[in-house]
Design a protein that fits this description.
Elements: H1 9-60, E1 64-68, E2 85-89, E3 103-107, E4 115-119, E5 129-132, E6 148-154, E7 169-174, E8 180-183
Antiparallel strand pairs: 1-2, 1-5, 2-3, 4-6, 6-7, 7-8
């Protein structure tokens, strides 16, 4: 007698039931994973830009500025951080790319990613640019210390924690000493746009 190779209808239905359960449970978790990684990537890009600006200021012994730039050529005070930014030499400290000032790093922004990046300082000291002195200290054009937090948020407000308690968001803190750190504490990212 010849043995039949194949699956019975009951076996196929059982496999389909298990696969559908796995897909139903797994897809939302995969979405959480991808959204969380997207926020982490954008946060790390901003942290890297700030750290490069600070280290280049110390290394080159001149003021280096990181500013919003939608075209990656000039600073724009009207855009948002998610439009992109540039890091450039700024020896005259005017937070504007002038002739002879070299652009050190570009970031094309987060277009199409549903991400917002906003500064969260009450005095708007880091609203459009952050400038580091030759000692690595964040100083505004008027000489005031630049400190504050940037919020990197998902525009759609998707939930990412396994318990569903917070929106997809990260914070980037800039201290008066120039130290930059990322965080996901709610106190730092409380008001995502």
């Amino acid at each position: 007698m010849k043995k039949s190779l194949g699956y019975t209808l009951i076996e196929l239905m059982s496999i389909l039931a298990v696969v559908s359960i796995l897909v139903t449970v797994g897809l939302p978790l995969m979405n959480v994973f991808f959204e969380s990684n997207r926020m982490i990537t954008n946060t790390n890009d901003l942290v890297a830009g700030l750290n490069i600006a600070r280290s280049e200021a110390i290394k080159q012994q001149m003021r280096i500025t990181l500013c919003q730039s939608a075209d990656q050529v000039a600073c724009s005070g009207s855009g948002q951080w998610e439009d992109g930014w540039i890091v450039f030499q700024d020896p005259n400290g005017n937070a504007t790319v002038d002739g002879g000032e070299r652009i050190l790093r570009l970031n094309a922004g987060t277009s199409g990613q549903n991400v917002t990046i906003r500064s969260n300082d009450v005095n708007n000291l880091i609203a459009n640019s952050v400038s580091f002195t030759s000692r690595g200290l964040p100083k505004a054009l008027n000489g005031g210390v630049q400190t504050g937090t940037f919020r990197v948020c998902d525009k759609r407000g998707l939930k990412v924690n396994a318990d569903g308690t917070t929106t997809v968001a990260r914070g980037v803190n800039l201290s008066p000493s120039g130290k930059v750190r990322s965080t996901k504490q709610l106190a730092d990212i409380a008001s995502c746009p």
